[in-house]
Prior knowledge:
Blueprint: E1 4-16, E2 21-29, E3 35-41, E4 47-51, H1 54-63, E5 68-71, E6 74-79, E7 82-87, E8 90-99, H2 101-106, H3 111-114, H4 117-130, E9 137-139, E10 144-163, E11 166-167, E12 171-172, E13 190-200
Parallel strand pairs: 4-5
Antiparallel strand pairs: 1-2, 1-12, 1-13, 2-3, 3-4, 6-7, 7-8, 8-10, 9-10, 10-11, 10-13
Amino acid sequence: MGGRWVFDGHIAGIGTGSGLRAVVGIWQESPFGPFADAMVQLPSGRRVLLAPTDEVAEFIAATYSFEEVRVVDVSAVLAGLSLTVDAGPLALRASVGGRALLGSLLRTVPWPVAVNTRWLAAVSPLAAVATRGARTSGTAGNGRLEYYGVSDLHHISSAGVSWEGRDAGPLSSISPPLTFGFSSVPPRPSLARVRTTVTEARSPRPPRH
């Protein structure tokens, strides 16, 4: 993979009345092939990764922070305006609503620019102002750098979520922000079209003598 990993797909961010918050990645293209994963932050603050294979779990756990990693069957189906997720203890059924204002603005940015890592590093401070807790670039685990190129954003209008068979409560804002990495998702539950790029940090050049 040459120290550069690119993932194309969607990210869904969900909050619930119980305080459980989840981020589901649905990746149509990745170095690991198509797959889905879920990052869950429990009301206690405990962070749990649900990944479909040992290889995917190892990569994600080396990039983000978790107290627990579980390898489970992960099924995530995004069909039209509905999202269905079954991932071990997590079950989610969500309806996708209209395009967010930010989504309309993002669609005006040409795709090659929207996913360019230099552009994403430059606009990251603005993203933090526009959406609380969100950044488009930052430092990930093991000295990696990560970039989120979001090209569209839709609200999630309704959702049913359960954890270990128990209802997690009604759809709610994602608050406080998630702490898996340097960036959270928008506070309002949403579905983003995204390209995530992870790179190895460049080693500093040796001093000249």
